[in-house]
Every structure is written in C-alpha cells, then in structure tokens.
Amino acid sequence: MRILALDTATEGCSVAVREGEREIARSVEVGRGHAEHILVLIEEVLAEAALTLRQLDGIAASVGPGAFTGVRISVAVAQGLAFGAGLPVIPVTTLEALAFARLDAAQGTGVPGEAAVACLDARMGEIYWGCYVRDARRGVRALSPPQVSSPVALVLPAGRILGIGRGFAAYPELAALPQLSLDEAARGALPDARAMARIGIMRLAAGEGIDPAALEPLYLRDRVALTAAERRAARDG
Predict the structure, then answer these.
(1) Quick one: pLDDT at residue 30?
(2) What one-character DSSP code corresponds to residue 211?
(3) Which of 90, 130, 159, 199 could form a disulfide with 95 if both were Cys (CB 3.0 to 4.6 A apart)?
(4) pTM of the model
(5) Cis (ω within 30 of 0) for the bond into 112?
(6) How far apart are the C-alpha atoms of 45 and 15, rounded to whole Å?
(7) CATH classification code of 95-187
(8) What are the angstrom distances between the C-alpha of 68 and each of 65, 96, 135?
(9) What is the residue extent of each domain of the chain?
(10) Looking at domain 2-93+191-214, which of 3.40.30.10, 3.40.190.150, 1.10.10.60, 3.30.420.40 is its CATH number?
C-alpha cells in the first residue's frame, strides 16, 4: 500500500510517502508561507519515490488542531490532490500523530508508557491536548476527545504517562505533573507527516478512507485572537 501524508497545521510543514517499510520524508519549520512550501515538498518526495499521485492508494491529511490558516491549507491541499487523482483521504489529527510517535519511540526502551499525552500551544493562554493509547488497528485510540483548555485543566490518567509536544515547552509547569515522563526531544516535538503516513496506512487498510469532499478541519475553538481588553488584562496581570 502506498500513501502520501501531509501536515501544515503548526509551525512545521512536513510531507511523507510510505510504501511498505520504505519511507521518504521532508520537513521544514516555517513561520508563514506553508502553502508555498508544502507543494514543493510534495513534488520532491514523489519524485524521489518515483511515484505519481495516481499510483498512490490514498492521502493522509492533518486536520488539526492547530493554526487556523495552517489547518485550512492542509485540508485544502489534500482535497485538491485527492480529487484530481481519484483517491480517498484519511484524516489524522496533530495530537494523534504526536502521541503515535511518542508511543512508538518508547517501545524499544524497555519502559514503555501506558499512554501518551500530546500537548500543543494553542496561544491565548490555552493548550490543545489529548491522551492516547496504542491501537493495533488504528494506530492510536483517544481516551477522551481532544480538547482546548487552560494549562491547569490538563488531567493525566493513572499510570506512567509519556508527554510530547510544544505545549509542554510553552508552559513548563506542566512538566511537573505527577506520573509524566518528558524529555527534551519530546518537549520540542511538532506533528510530523511520517507518523501520519503510518497511521494513514493502518486506517486505509481498515476501510476508513473517505471521499475528499467529506474531509473537514478539526477546530476546537472559534476564536483565533484575544480581544483588546483581554490582551490588556493579560499584560497587566
């Protein structure tokens, strides 16, 4: 099975092609200009893989949560490519990709965690977060729906929990949560298309590919900025 995965939902912009155990990936970290970078990266990985879009079996797309514009770009690019090539799409969240990568990396350490908490900086004093466990069929399974909240509202389940994502770097007090295992690499991690490709293959094999028209962004809140009064209050506080 061959799959293309792409993500532009955060500061990172990444693309991966996976065919069996073969993986070709590109990633850059950018402040702006995701739309220009993502198309170039897609061309590069497909050329290196010697594949055309029509030779793929599907496209795994990041649907958020993340930056409003970045999520829209990821969804729109995946839809455009999939429509043109007649391919199904597989939605993957940024939090799922982070948790999958953390749980996978921990497998060979001898002390794997029971679950992984993925945490991203949502700005405006909030975080996006979710807690996940491994799932042999779908890659990961959420213990509860992904959510946006203040950092103090992050609650860990019982057991040894692995942390990952830049929300932990933005709010260092989260690293002191009991039962949390967090290293520097995990603290600086962003979602990556390589994990999305692996999840996408599993879900496509399970029959979870959808029509591109049905692909929707995952927005956990409606607002994208603080009001002037809220900015003043945060500055004065």
Answers:
(1) 85
(2) -
(3) 130
(4) 0.91
(5) no
(6) 7
(7) 3.30.420.40
(8) 8, 18, 29
(9) 2-93+191-214, 95-187
(10) 3.30.420.40
Distance CA 91, CA 60 (A): 6
Q: What is the mean pLDDT of residues 3-15?
A: 96
Q: Which residues pair with 26 in a beta bridge?
A: 15
For 230, list phi and psi in degrees, rounded to 5: -70, -40
Does 34 have pLDDT greater than 90?
A: no
In whole angstroms, give the CA distance from residue 171 to residue 205.
38
pLDDT grade for 158, boundaries at 50, 70 and 90: confident
The residue with greater pLDDT, 116 or 36, is 116
pLDDT in tens, 214-224: 999 999 986 44
Say which residue the tokens 């061959």 belong to: 2
Tokens of 124: 């405006």
